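Input:
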Amino acid sequence: MHLISIDDLSAADIENLFTLSDGFLEIASRPIKKVPTLRGRTIINLFLEPSTRTQSSFELAGKRLSADVINIKGSTSSVVKGESLKDTILTLESYRPDVIVMRHPQVGAARLATRYTNASVVNAGDGTGEHPTQCLLDLYSLRRVYGALQGLKVAIVGDVLRSRVARSNLFGFRKMGIEVRLVGPPTLMPPGIEYWQVPVYHDLEALDEVDVVYLLRMQLERAKGKVPPVPSLREYSRLWGVSPYCLKPHQRVMHPGPINRGVELSADLADDDRSLILHQVESGLAVRMAILYQCLAGSLGEESAT
Amino acid sequence: MMVMGEGNGGEATRSKVIMDEEQISRTLARMTHEIAEQVADLSRLVLVGIQRGGVDLAERLAELFQTFYALRPPTGAVDITFYRDDLDVRLGRQHGQPKVHLTRLPFDVTDKIVVLVDDVLYTGRTIRAAIDALFDYGRPQAVRLAVLVDRGHRDLPIRPDFVGKNVPTSRKERVVVRLKESEGIDQVVIEE
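Output:
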């Protein structure tokens, strides 16, 4: 049972995860924030790219389920000495882990890992590929706020070209009946976008009709050595940065984090009541607990239980 | 993914009603009196139903308390899915995934006399899980167990304090409690 892409899950699977997440959300308000469900299971968080939110929420998710969690961070691991991904996974497999949660700078790395381990592999972000758990927590957050997802209108704004979140969210949101549009400068839209069957706008006016504005960070670290995505961050923020004045009172703002105050969103928008950014983080913990639970105690993803 | 229940090759299940609406009503009334008799300090009594079968029963007992004793003990619900001991076995294969419901304890359990309420007592594993769940919320003064039906076959040293009806069963049989609140009818049946 792996979760590599948001397409590994059906809409019914996702609804199921929401129900589980409700249960796990309740745990966060208890004095003892722990349940014995995954007692004694081993979860390895292998993060070969930086992360605050994803890594900390998977770590806490595993611990609150009473599992044994170990965290391997790229910069302090032997990957720095040139160890290959295959060898890293084979080494970890010797511990017979139950789940490997993986973030890696290259697309397809999580899928590759499934070849070398019997553990469930959860993709926590593979380069510019996908970030399925982000999509799930975003959907859950929307569900908590709006109730029904069908018919919601969301605009994904910014560096779609290099964003794994944009990809997972586009596929996942549409699966749940949300109407998605992409908004951003043409230079930040992937080539071939016209085949994605999604409306694309190059003007912030496109935000007028939506319920939720989903902002993306400029993925500068993925643009190294290539043509710079925009002439300057200042120009980007003037033309594409969203502030509270761009939004109607009923509209909400989401962002996968980390935010760049003053670039894709103004500092005061980040602190505005309409921002769901911290709500997303709270949802993220519950959803990741649900995902770990599903990997080990339910059935999730590609291989359906027979 | 959702494969529910043990298939029995297409044969019809035989079912026998062992308690009807009237009997259930009288039994719950008697249990209410028993609880009132046994619990020393009614001001500290709380009724916690075990999801899902015990929740409506706990509410009914609370209502009966109100009727007979002009006092409605606080009620709550506890979901034991995350405390089960059989998650490995249930891996979506035979029984389908256990459905998660919410735990709702709108009071502090510490120093309370908690009466756990469930519909059917069988192996006792559910009760063990419920006690574990309860203790994650605080330190009750005492925990008692009230069940509508005790069908025997305990795997653990757990015994009920208040029993509606003792029903000897074989392991092949199933005891099903249906209540108006969720299924439109009050009855207890044995199915095979």
